[in-house]
Amino acid sequence: MSQEPSRDWHAYNASKINKKRLFPILLSRLCAGITEPLHTFGRPAIPLRDVLFAMVLNVFNKTPASDCFPDLYDAHQKKLISQIPMPATIFKYLAMKSTTALLRRLIIESSLPLAHVETVFAIDSTGLATSRYVRWIDHRYGKSKVRDKRSWIKVHIMCGVLTNIVTAVEITGPTAADSPYFKVLLLTTLQHFRVKEVLCDKAYSALNNLLLAWQNKCLPFIPFKKNAKPDHQTKDPLWTRLYHFYSLNAEWFEKHYHKRSNVESTFSMIKRKFESDVRGRVKTTQVNEALCKVLCHNLCVIIHSIYERGVEPDFWNEKDNESL
Predict the structure, then answer these.
(1) DSSP label of 277
(2) Which pick of 69, 102, 177, 248 has the fewest CB atoms within 10 Å?
(3) How far apart are CA 91 and CA 295, in angstroms?
(4) Which residues pair with 67 in a beta bridge?
C-alpha cells in the first residue's frame, strides 16, 4: 500500500502563525455579503453583518461576549466592522431563528473557494454537550436511583476528505437517526461541488440513499449491514449489483472506504479548537452556536489552504478583494 504524502510543515506553521491575523479579515469579507434588512421606521438597527461578525469571533476566541471587546475594538479600528455590538445585542441575535438561516448561508459560502479541490466527500454525525441536564430514574437491580446526565445536540455534516471543509450541516436533537439526513446533505453539496464519491458508515445503509447517490452520478461507498441480504425486499437491481460488486472487490472497497475517517478528523478538529460543548440554554441558541463552530472551522481550513494549496478566497464572487 502506498504511503500517504507527508504534511507540508512550512504551510502548516505559516497558517498557525497567521491564523489570528487572517481570521477577522476573512470573516469580515464573508459577512459583507449579507444583505441588510430594509429599514423603514424608528432608530436604525446595528448592521446585521457586524452582529454576525461579533458572534462568530466570540466563538472563535472561546470567551464570553464581554471579554471579546478588545478584538472587536481592534476590528473596528481596522474598518472590518462599522459598529461594535454590545453583549446584549449579540445574545439577542444568537437566540433568533432567523440567524440560523444566515449562518447556514455563510457556511456554504465559506466552503466555495475549495469547490475545485474536493470531489470525494464523507458524511457522519457527532454530539455536542449542552449546559442543561436531564434526569431519569434507574430501576435496575431491584433499586431505584435518580441519575442525571447532560443533554446534547447532534451535528450532521458532509465534508471533503482532502481539506476537511464542511459543505453542508444539519443540527438535530440527540435521538435523530442519521440516515434521513443523507439526502439534504448530499443535495446541498451538489449545488456547488462535483461529487464523485460519497462515503458513510452502516447507519446510512439504505436503498433510498444508494439510489439518490447513483442518480446524481455519485459512487456510494456505504458498507452493507451484517444482516443485509443480496436481494432487497423491493427487488431493486441496484442493491443487488452493489452488494455483489463490493463483496467481490473487498480490498478495493476498503481502500476507498478508509477515506471516511476524515469526517472523524473534522469532528475532532472542531471540538479541539472550539470546545466540545455549547453554552446556550435555549435550543435555538445551541443550534446557532454549533453553526458558529462549524463556520470557524471552515475559515481555519481556508487559511490553511491559502498556504498549502495557494487558494485565493473569493467570497460572493468579489474579485476586487485586497491581497491578504
Answers:
(1) B
(2) 248
(3) 18
(4) none
* C-alpha–C-alpha distance, residues 4 and 7, integer Å: 9
- Note the pLDDT tens digit of each residue in 233-250: 899 999 999 999 999 999
Across 13-25, average pLDDT: 92
Q: Indicate the domain borders of the chain.
A: 10-35+44-317
Contacts of 228 (CB under 8 A, 6+ apart): 205, 243
Beta bridge partners of 133: 150
Taking alpha carbons only, the member of 265, 306, 323 closest to residue 117 is: 306
Pairing of strands 197-199, 120-138: parallel
Cell of 202: 452502516
Alpha-carbon distance 36 to 126, whole Å? Answer: 33
Nearest CA-CA partner of 34 in 23, 53, 55, 49: 49
Q: Can you tell me the distance from the alpha carbon of 279 to that of 28, in angstroms, rounded to the nearest whole number?
A: 24
User: CA 172 to CA 175: how far, in whole Å?
Assistant: 8
